[in-house]
Amino acid sequence: MSFAPPPYPYERLDGLRAAASVHEGGAIDCSIGTPVDAPPDFVVAALAQATGARGYPPSAGTAQYRDACAGWMHRRFNVEVPAAQLGACVGTKEFVASLAQYLHLRRDDRDTVLYPAISYPTYAMGARLAGLRAVEVPLRDGALDLESIDPSDAQRALVLWSNSPSNPTGHLDDLGVAARWGREHDVLVASDECYADFTWSDRPRTILEHGVDNVLALHSISKRSNLAGVRAGFYAGDPELVSYLRLVRQHAGLMVPAPVQAAVALAYDDDAHVEVQRDVYFRRLNLLAGALRDAQVVCPAPEGSFYLWCSRDGMDGWQLAMWLAEVAGLIVSPGELYGPSGSDFVRIAMVQPDVAIELAAARVRNTP
Q1: Which of 268, 288, 323 is the last residue in one of the domains?
Q2: How far apart are the first and last CA of the chain?
Q3: I need a surface site. Which of 24, 149, 213, 258 has the fewest CB within 10 A?
C-alpha cells in the first residue's frame, strides 16, 4: 500500500483525557473547535421543516443560499460578490481536502501545495490525498513569510493557502500582500476565512477586498452560527475558477442537503446572533487567559479566532498539555498537531460553557 493514512490527530490525546478525568467535576475538553453553544432557534425550526428534502438540491447552491451568502459578505466586508461567483460546499473541511485534487486536474503542470507552517492539518493532507507535494511556508510574526518561499516551489505551486484569523495561532495574515504575491507568481491564493466573524484586533477582512483575480475566499457556517453539524459553507472569488469548481464538484455529486441550505440561508441573513456569540467567546478568552498568565503560562491575546495559543518555559507542547490536564482537568491540543513549528505550544479552544471555563480558570489559579 503506497499510502497509509496517519492516525487522526485528536485520537492521540487519550493520555491527556485519562489525566484530566480524575478531577472532581470531570475533564474540561477544549481540544477540538466544536461549538458548544446553541444555534439560533429560527435556524433549528427551519431545519425541522425539511424544505426541499424530496429532491436533489443544486450542487452550486440554491439562489436563496447564494444570495444570503453574498449579502452577508456585503454587510461584513463591504464587498460585492455576484451569485455567479459563489458556490456551496459541504462544510469547508471537505473543500480544503479536495481543492488540490481538482486544481491538479485543471493544471497538471504544477504539483505543489503551499500552506502555513503552523496550521490546520487538512491543508497538507489535501496535497497528500491528491498525490502532490505539500510545502510549508514559514511564518514571520505569525503571518505568512512569502519572501521565504523558494522560487522553484513557487514555479511548481498550484495553490497557496492562507488562514486568517489562524487556527491555531489566532494571528492575521496581510491578505492584500498574499493576493499580490499570487498574481505575481500565477498561483491561486485560497484564503480560509472561517473565523472572520471572530476578529478582535481589527475589523473582519477578506481577500476579496483586493480583487477576485486568482483568489478564492472560503467561509463556513460552523463557527459563526454554531452549526458545525449541518456541514455547510461556501467559496467565492475568481469567476473562471468558481465556474470550473462548480462544474467539477457537480460531477462529483457534492451537494449541501436542501433543508440545510434553506436553514443556513436564514443564518447568513442574520447578524444579531453572531454579535451575541462574539461577546461570549471574547469573555471566555479573557477569563481563561488571565488565569493562565497568573500561572506563568505565556498566553497572548489572539488577533482573531476563539483559540488561545500558549507556551510555558521549560515545557514543550505535550508537557504543557499534560500539566494542564493534571492541574486543571483541561484537555487541550499540543501544538505539534499543527506542524513541527508549533511543538512548544498548546491550543485551547473556548468551546465549553461559561461555567466550565470558569471552573478551569479556578483550578489553574489554585495550582500550588
Answers
A1: 268
A2: 51
A3: 24
**Helix, strand or coil, per DSSP, at residue 351:** coil
CA distance 353 to 135: 38
Q: Within a domain: residue 132?
A: yes
Q: Which DSSP helix (H) or strand (E) runs through 162?
A: strand 157-163
Note whether 87 and 60 are within 8 A (CB).
yes
Query: Which cell is 14 given?
Result: 487519550
CA-to-CA distance for 125 and 31, rounded, in angstroms? 20
- 348 has which bridge partners? 308
Q: What is the mean pLDDT of residues 298-304?
A: 98
Please determine, for residue 334, whether its predicted confidence score (pLDDT) is greater than 70. yes
* 292, 175: one domain: no
Residue 1 reports pLDDT greater than 80: no
- Domain interval for residue 319: 9-30+273-365
Q: How far is 357 from 28, CA to CA, in rounded Å?
A: 8
Residues 246 and 318 in one domain: no
pTM of the model as a whole: 0.96
Retrieve residue 329's grid coordinates.
482537568
Grid look-up 490527530 returns: 9
| H-run or E-run covering 79 | none
**Mean pLDDT over residues 211-229, rounded?**
98
| Cβ proximity of 159 and 239 under 8 Å | no
- Contact between 244 and 34 (Cβ < 8 Å): no
- Using one digit for the tens of pLDDT, what is the confidence trace for 258-293? 999 999 999 999 999 999 999 999 999 999 999 999
How many domains does the chain divide into? 2
92 and 196 share one domain = yes
Which residue is it, cell 471555563?
A: 357
Average pLDDT value over all residues in the chain: 96
Q: What is the pLDDT of residue 4?
A: 84
Q: How far is CA 1 from CA 4, 5, 101, in A?
A: 7, 10, 20
In a domain, 344, yes or no: yes
For residue 22, give the CATH number of its domain.
Answer: 3.90.1150.10
